[in-house]
Design a protein that fits this description.
Layout (H helix, E strand, L loop, with lengths): L1 H6 L5 H8 L6 H4 L2 H11 L3 H28 L1 H61 L1 H8 L1 H10 L3 H17 L4 H24 L6 H14 L4 H22 L13 H35 L10 H29 L2 H19 L6 H34 L13 H5 L13 H9 L13 H19 L6 H31 L7 H34 L17 H17 L1
Helix pairs in contact: 8-9, 8-10, 9-10, 10-11, 12-13, 12-14, 13-14, 13-15, 14-16, 15-16, 16-19, 16-20, 19-21, 20-21, 20-22, 21-22
Length: 583
Amino acid sequence: MNDISQDAEPPSLPELLASSSTHTLSSSSLTSPDASSYISRLTALSLQELEAEPTELASSSAQLTNALTTLCYTSYPTFLSLHATTSTLSSSLDALSISLSSLLSALPTLESGARTFAQDSRVLLASRRKAALVLEHHDKLHDVLSLPLLLETSVRNHNYADALLLAQHASTLALRFPSNPLVQSVKADCDARVHSMLAQLLRILHEQAKLPALFRAVGFLRQMDVLTEQELALAFLAGRSAYLDGTLRAVEVEKKGLDSEGSVERERDIHARYLKRYVDAWREGVHDVVMQYTTIFLDRPHSSEPAPPELHVLLTTFTTVRVGELLDLLRETLPLVADPSLLSSLLTQLTYCATSFARVGMDFRAALGPLFVAAVRKGITREFEDAAEAWTKALESDDAPKGRAGRARRKPSQLFLSSSANSTPPVPTPAQLAALASSAPNVPPPILASYPPLGVYTNTLLSALNGLRLLAPASLLHDLLASLDIALARGASALMGYAGKTAEGRSNGTSSASSEETKREDEVVRAVGTVYTKVFVPFLRRALAEGVYGVKADAAEGDGEVAMDAELRRTLEGLDVWLEGAH
């Protein structure tokens, strides 16, 4: 037993203190750092100090107790406040814990609502951003949106330079922003205004305008670059042609009065006045177009390259068409004028016109000759026919039976002789006939004055020949002589018919005149026939050939350009046979 106890390890001081203490002490409380430090201090004390240690500890305990009591007495409000605060903090922490739990449970719903709100407000935010962007660029947008209005104002005020700049700016914006609908819409509106400006510029070409205005309009059309140079030249000629047509239509007021009944002379004057006004308007209008076209399209002072040949072809076509229209009008209207005096004035006017156009390569003088020749031929021929018709009607009206004209048939002496004439009708002697062949071709033989109807016939034909002297185409001599011969042959036939009816009435016993009176009336008829054959016909043929054209006329030769017409020759021969048989 002793050996076992000797081998056992002695207990430590903390263990001894724990086993000897009246209070239950745990070993862990004695092994703490503070306790270990205090126990180490005890082991280092002497016995005396160790014995005195309880007293010191009791004294220290009493002091501490007193200090603690004093502290509690003096600072109890602080301890109460600290206690209340601690209690409140504990309950607050509990409430905070509950609130945090509620918050944590509500956070998923809040997050879902926030996402929903963000999605719902995305469109509104985009609109607000757009609105803010629009507000930020308000001035620039206003400038862009004002382009159509500014362009329209410029076009309305004929300020085409600014209008083209605005249109060019709109095109530039459209190229920079091809996918922007606003810019494209502005571009479309500007294009509509540019189209109206194009129509306005083209309308200038159809209106009354001088060269500067036309040059300016064509210049702006070139800047618009919507027409090629050939198309622009064609549009120019079409516009000026339309204006010229309107001007020429306005000249038709000169033809007023043609629908109403009027004399032939009045109608001729109206047609002549109309042609004069038309030629003046045509000359001025076509000359202006040619000079304007040449200045705008053909003259290129700042370019070394000549104008394209197509431009020259267009001008040539225009002038050809216009000259053709003028010639067509002359071909249609000149025969209605027919008066050589009026035709001469028109020919002079047209010759000056053609001469002025010759400077620009439009000499149409060669085309005027055939037109005026045809008009003179028709007019003089018609006057010859009218004179023969008047002579024939004078003879035929006196041949009418009693009662048809309301009066008795006149005697030849009453019809052919004046009331102051001698009882014996004058007949030309061979000497007088020889003198007539060498007399002046424009002086009527005095013997014709003894027969008033024949004198009227002579004056009518001489009036036509006097007018012909003003405009006598050399190529018409043969034609006019043929027409004159036809008219004279008709007059001779009418005279033979009258003489035959007179003889027939006397043979039927319808005349109650005495033999002497009958003989006298026969002498009058023979005298008229003789004067018609020997004096009247040769004089008028000489008046035409020699008096107008200066060509010697010898009807007896039967050849040459002044040869007598075969029908007139046969008629005169028949009249001579009748005269010889009447003797």
